[in-house]
Amino acid sequence: MRATLSVLVLPAFVATLAAQEPSRQGPPADPANRQSQAKATELWEPVPKVVTPGTNAGAPPSDAIVLFDGRNLDGWVLARDGVTPAGWKVADGILTVDKATGSIQTKRLFKNYQMHIEWRIPADVTGTDQARGNSGVFLVSTGPGDAGYELQVLDSYENATYVNGQAGSVYKQASPLVNASRKPGDWQMYDIVWTAPVFNADGSLKTPAYLTVLHNGVLIQNHFELTGETLFIGKPFYKAYGASAPIKLQSHGDPSPPISFRNIWVRELP
């Protein structure tokens, strides 16, 4: 009998509570006041400048600084002295590494930027591991040789090597999130966002460098925080350089056939 009474009384009790509970919706909103509140968070200035995108994927937008358009190396010098004109081969719109000449770097200096660069491992590439289509894009060149911050270029299509040295790695610091490499003979591309390190007046580090990279349209480095310059031996560390620096392309000493580049451009960022 008590169970029956509980079943009968419970619905009535719930209904009473619902009748006593105040409305959660409140009074209807004032349309004029709502519009005023919305306008309070609208920004109309400064108006972003208009940039016309490239006509196709990889084409430079209207505000890009074209570093190589397939015609010449007027904007490049040898990295060993920063003065001698770059001597790599330019033919049919393509730039090919000259291993005897050495690495090249831009005359122009950069700080923070977006970069697009396309590269190709020769179809007849030979060698294994790091001796197979090895090169690099140095986001900052801090001196001759391999001084600076390197994004690795390598044939990583079915070519085993240490993972923090394969294509798309921040050399010896960060392996790529995935391997997005195409086979030798195919053109590949990097789309890069580089945030340069900032140093205090005494040369100590104020803020570190960050790097985001897409390889063939696939995200492989996601705002990675660098721990210093990229080194072949030893732990990375920061050393101060000027507010801006050249971009460098590496001539690696391995015996495999030289790789090629094309369509290189940069957009300067704040």
Description of the molecule:
The structure is a single chain. This protein is mainly β. Helix content is 10%, strand content 29%. It has helices spanning 2-20, 31-39, and strands spanning 65-68, 76-78, 89-91, 94-96, 104-106, 112-120, 135-141, 148-153, 187-195, 198-199, 205-207, 210-215, 218-225, 248-249, 260-269. The strands form 3 sheets. Strands 1, 3, 4, 6, 9, 12, 13 and 15 form an 8-stranded antiparallel sheet that branches. It is globular, with a radius of gyration of 28 Å. Mean pLDDT is 92; it is low at 1-19.
Summarize the SSE layout with pairings:
Layout: H1 2-20, H2 31-39, E1 65-68, E2 76-78, E3 89-91, E4 94-96, E5 104-106, E6 112-120, E7 135-141, E8 148-153, E9 187-195, E10 198-199, E11 205-207, E12 210-215, E13 218-225, E14 248-249, E15 260-269
Antiparallel strand pairs: 1-15, 2-5, 3-4, 4-15, 5-14, 6-9, 6-15, 7-8, 7-14, 9-12, 10-11, 12-13
What labels would you give this structure?
eight-stranded antiparallel beta sheet; 2 helices; mainly beta; Jelly Rolls; 270 residues; five-stranded antiparallel beta sheet; 29% strand
Task: Give the CA-based shape.
Answer: globular
Count of domains: 1
Low-confidence stretches: 1-19
Report the C-alpha radius of gyration, rounded. 28 Å
Taking the sheet with the most strands, its summary is:
8 strands, antiparallel
Q: N-to-C SSE series?
A: HHEEEEEEEEEEEEEEE
The class by helix and strand makeup works out as mainly beta
Q: What is the strand tally?
A: 15
Helix content: 10-25%
Write down the CATH class: Mainly Beta
Strand content: 25-35%
Query: Helical stretch count?
Result: 2
- Distance from N terminus to C terminus (CA atoms, Å) equals 79 Å
CATH superfamily label: Exo-inulinase, domain 1
